[in-house]
UniProtKB/TrEMBL annotation, chain A:
Chief place where the protein resides: membrane
Lineage: superkingdom: Bacteria
Pfam families: Spore_permease
NCBIfam families with a match to the protein in the record: 2A0309
Name the record gives this protein: Spore germination protein KB
GO CC annotation terms, alphabetical: membrane
Keyword Zinc assigned: no
Automatic annotation (TrEMBL), chain B:
PANTHER family: LEUCINE ZIPPER PROTEIN 4 (PTHR22550:SF5), SPORE GERMINATION PROTEIN (PTHR22550)
Keyword Isomerase: no
GO cellular component: membrane
Lineage, opening ranks: Bacteria, Bacillati, Bacillota, Bacilli, Bacillales
Biological processes per GO annotation: spore germination
Region annotation (Disordered) ranges: 1-23, 503-525
The keyword Membrane appears for this protein: yes
Protein name per Swiss-Prot or TrEMBL: Spore germination protein KA
Family affiliation: Belongs to the GerABKA family.
Pfam families attached to this UniProt entry: GerA
Transmembrane feature ranges: 271-292, 313-332, 377-396, 402-423, 435-458
Biased composition (Basic and acidic residues): 12-21, 516-525
InterPro entries on file: Spore_Ger, UPF0353/GerABKA_families
Length: 393, 525
């Protein structure tokens, strides 16, 4: 099982994930960090009012089981399948980011297919170990990565790169560009991605659901502040250049020199960034695999294989890194991801609340109740079957 | 010596014998003797001494033992007593010869009756002496186990500067006594078992009742019981049978030849498994950090202990990573190096015909061969190996331009670092992983190393030792246990037993009463 502390670590590293690669809210120029902050607050609202509430109504089920229970077998299956595809697609995007940037910064001569294969393999190894392996890994990784980040910030500071004057003036063009940059882009990436945790929350070993909620929100708040801080540091050290470079944070670190011993630390920093991306893509891979295993009632180990192959092949769909970024920021963030992160969860929550109400009303009318109970029992039995199949592995 | 336990506790062994058609003793002495000889297959080391008692002139009795595995002094004393007794007159005529012998005439502490030939035979194979009495259905087994063995010496594989110099020996009884002498607690439990169809090796499972977790103890018993093998010659056999996962480079069970290490583990709630015939005892369940701790850390001051532990951890990473980092940086990421170093490295490598990966592999394999030669060769040839190793393979290889001097430095440093890890089996893990990482570094640079480390981390996170997570104080994180991991806080600050290993049933987890640090001012006032 997964301990609350492991959940918090995973929430933090998952959110930091690939968001450290980009200058979030770049459209707001030097007010980008305000956008990030606004996005984080809006995301918090989404998380606590929608996503966590869904889980609160059914604390012992994951998203796929909830779909099946409330939407019936067929529609539930369709919705579940859509989410498998959504998770896999998010994973593909992260794999591609990881691979392209690795080639760009570390391995100029290695073929893309090879790098993607290795990424899929190291991520698949963690997924095959079961749901808790990733969470345990993150618990070990988080303190190390946070320490390195702090060292990095100190190095940037001591190199005299950080100039808070670059953040001034605040609200030069008013609040409007800040808001426009935040909604919906920054909600969909990274904060709205918490919808993935609907696959994981039920594995948390906590006494009651309140603990899970509190821990998740704590992790979220930490990650939100961290991402904002990172944004501030990037803008403060690079100024106008921040929105032009491929990976702004990496560009900033190229100016750091460690005494006379290490001339360039950017290969090390890229490893740091990539480990967070690794956590994120593995979490998506794991989520997709669990969802797939529940949909088709197969064990996680078997489900991870078709998902892995799908992710590997899907990664070649993007023609280049720029194509990938462009598709992501121009289309997905604005039109596609909000459907999965906001629209469907709201619909689901409404349906859940409605049916709960119907059920509580029908306590007097026994005929409807028996149908309801039957449906519930059937779904419950199904979920138990799947759970058994998984635990047998 | 262990016959009593095996006769009493180890019902399973008894059951086995009964299944094979246990032969009970009969009143006829001649027949019993013949059957016993047949059971043991004769042999020159079986000593047979026939005696008669003055009060029972019609009944003979025979003393049997196996020469060499019995304690000569005990046999001498016993025989003297028996002879003296044989010449004396028994007052109470009602006594049978058997009860008389059993109760009045044997000058050895531990004796007990037996009724079957097999039981008598196996007792003799363990070093007991046996008296068969004419007309009696029971034999007397006398514990005279002894014989030649190594005395308690300083352990050779785990040495310390400060701390006890005693080491375990091959004799199980000596070893249990060494533990008993340190932990004089009535809660200390020794569960004896016999494993191995042919060797019938004695095994002791040692733990502290109430502090060790019951389910762990039960699990140890269950796994040992499942072992079916003809011979157990060393604790390594047991280790491979009972560890949680077979395919891992990391040791899931610790071994030690130091009684103080074993006792410290018992006191923290771990279970110790001793195997007769080897000084290496097993400790389980165990966590990753335990392999970087030496018993000396607790005897030296905490500051130097913490420093040494950090050094060991660093050495582990050096011995695992240094060659691969060198390969990755010189082949893929030269920009990381300062320019002057880069130029000097490039100059050195100019004449070297191989890529860095091949060069590193050559040197690493050479070193592994040297190390293996150092372990296996007869001691007298030692200096020859070091001359050949150091001069020919090091100096001359560089001068001939086969390898670069920097590579020789890297390989030597890696080699020395691998000796720093106190547990040899953890050092071996680093040695094996090193080669995989070197290949990854040679093909994918830092990216390859990081991929390797991620897989390694995932692997470590999935490992368990008797159900306990292998990375225990770190994942799942137990903050109070961090006091004794890569750092060691002063003794007075380690108030509680480490959580997770010891049973949580006991109400008082405090090891130190009050837990106050020394404060002379307060005492003076």
């Amino acid at each position: 099982m997964i301990s609350p502390r492991q959940l918090a670590s995973t929430v933090i590293l998952f959110l930091i994930g690939s968001s450290s690669l980009f200058l979030l809210g770049g459209n707001a120029d030097r007010d980008a960090w305000m956008s990030v902050l606004v996005g984080a607050l809006a995301g918090l609202l989404l998380l606590s009012c929608i996503t966590l509430q869904i889980q609160k109504l059914e604390p012992d089920r994951n998203l796929i089981e909830i779909f099946k229970l409330y939407f019936g077998r067929t529609i539930g299956f369709v919705f579940g399948f859509i989410y498998v595809i959504y998770y896999s697609y998010k994973c593909i995007r992260n794999v591609r980011e990881f691979a392209d940037l690795s080639i760009m910064f570390l391995l100029p001569d290695t073929p893309l297919s090879m790098v993607i294969l290795i990424i899929c393999f190291i991520s698949g190894y963690a997924v095959l170990g079961g749901p808790s392996i990733l969470f345990r890994m993150v618990e070990v990784l988080l303190p190390i990565l946070i320490t390195i980040y702090i060292v990095l910030f100190v190095l940037l500071l001591s190199a005299g790169l950080i100039d808070l004057g670059r953040l001034m003036p605040i609200f030069e063009h008013g609040f409007k560009p800040v808001w426009a940059a935040a909604i919906p882009e920054i909600i969909s990436f990274p904060y709205g991605e918490m919808v993935l945790f609907l696959m994981f929350w039920r594995y948390i070993a906590a006494d009651n659901y309140e603990v899970v909620m509190r821990i998740t929100i704590k992790g979220y708040v930490f990650a939100g502040s961290f991402i904002t801080l990172m944004n501030i540091i990037t803008i403060a050290s690079l100024g106008q250049f921040a929105s032009w470079s491929v990976v702004p944070l990496l560009l900033a670190t190229t100016f750091v020199e460690l005494g006379d011993s290490l001339e360039r630390i950017d290969p090390l920093v890229s490893l740091l960034l990539f480990s967070a991306v690794y956590v994120k893509l593995t979490a998506y891979y794991l989520g997709a695999s669990i969802a797939f295993s529940y949909l088709f009632r197969i064990s996680l180990r078997i489900a991870a294989i078709p998902i892995g192959i799908g992710i590997y092949c899907g990664s070649f769909w993007f023609k280049s890194y720029m194509h990938q970024v462009n598709v992501g920021f121009e289309r997905n963030l604005k039109f596609h991801f909000p459907i999965f992160q906001i629209v469907i969860p709201i619909v689901l929550l409404l349906v859940m609340l409605l049916r709960k109400k119907v059920r509580s009303k029908s306590n007097s009318a026994s005929s409807t109740k028996s149908v309801q109970v039957e449906a519930t029992n059937e779904a419950r039995k199904e979920s138990v079957d799947v759970q058994e199949a998984i635990s047998r592995q | 010596m262990f016959k009593k336990q095996s006769a009493g506790n180890d019902k399973q062994a008894g059951d086995d014998q009964r299944q094979h058609g246990e032969q009970l003793l009969v009143p006829d002495l001649e027949q019993n003797m013949e059957r016993l000889e047949r059971f043991l297959g004769g042999g020159a080391d079986i000593v047979c001494r026939t005696l008669t008692h003055r009060s029972f002139p019609n009944q003979r009795y025979v003393l049997f033992y196996m020469d060499g595995i019995v304690d000569g002094t005990a046999i001498g004393t016993m025989l003297l007593g028996l002879l003296e007794d044989a010449n004396s007159q028994v007052k109470e005529e009602a006594d049978s010869l058997y009860t008389h012998l059993m109760e009045r005439s044997i000058a050895v502490g531990k004796i007990f009756p037996a009724t079957a030939i097999e039981e008598v035979g196996y007792a003799m194979l363990e070093g007991s002496s046996v008296i068969l009495v004419d007309g009696s259905l029971r034999a007397i087994i006398i514990d005279t186990t002894g014989g030649e063995g190594r005395s308690v010496e300083e352990p050779t594989s785990q040495t310390v500067v400060r701390g006890p110099k005693e080491g375990f020996t091959e004799n199980l009884r000596t070893n249990t006594a060494l533990v008993r002498r340190i932990i004089k607690s009535p809660k200390l439990r020794f569960d004896y078992k016999i494993v191995g169809r042919e060797t019938r090796t004695n095994i002791a499972v040692i733990y502290l009742q109430g502090i060790a977790q019951d389910d762990v103890v039960k699990e140890v018993h269950r796994r040992i019981k499942q072992i079916e093998i003809d011979a157990i010659l060393e604790s390594g056999y047991i280790e491979e049978f009972i560890q949680d996962k077979a395919f891992t480079p990391f040791p899931l069970i610790q071994n030690t030849e130091r009684p103080d290490t074993a006792c410290a583990s018992i006191l923290e709630g771990q279970v110790v498994i001793m195997v007769s015939g080897t000084p290496f005892v097993l400790i389980t369940p165990v966590t990753f950090v335990k392999f970087f701790q030496s018993s000396e850390d607790y005897y030296q001051r905490y500051d130097i202990s913490t420093f040494l532990r950090l050094i060991r951890m660093t050495s582990f990473f050096i011995s695992m990573l240094l060659p691969s980092l060198y390969i990755a940086i010189t082949t893929f990421h030269q920009e990381m190096l300062p320019t002057s170093l880069l130029i000097s490295l490039a100059a050195q490598r100019e004449g070297v015909p191989f890529p860095a990966l091949v060069e590193a592999f050559l040197m690493e394999i050479t070193f592994e061969i040297l190390r293996e030669a150092g372990v296996r060769m007869p001691r007298i040839i030692g200096p020859a190996i070091s001359i050949v190793g150091a001069l020919v393979l090091g100096q001359a290889a560089v001068q001939a331009g086969l390898v670069s001097a920097a590579m020789v430095i890297v390989v030597s440093f890696t080699a020395i670092a691998s000796f720093v890890i106190p547990a040899v089996n953890m050092g071996i893990a680093a040695r094996l992983i090193r080669f995989v990482l070197m290949i990854l570094a040679g093909s994918f640079g830092l990216f390859g190393i990081m991929s390797g480390l991620m897989v390694l981390l995932a692997h470590l996170c999935g490992l368990r030792s008797f159900g306990k997570p292998y990375l225990l104080p770190f994942s799942p994180l137990i903050v109070s246990n961090l006091k004794d991991t890569f750092i060691r806080v002063p003794w007075w600050a380690m108030r509680k037993r480490p959580i997770g290993m010891a049973s949580n049933q006991i109400p008082n987890q405090n090891r130190i009463g009050g837990g106050k640090r020394p404060d002379p001012d307060q005492e003076g006032a």
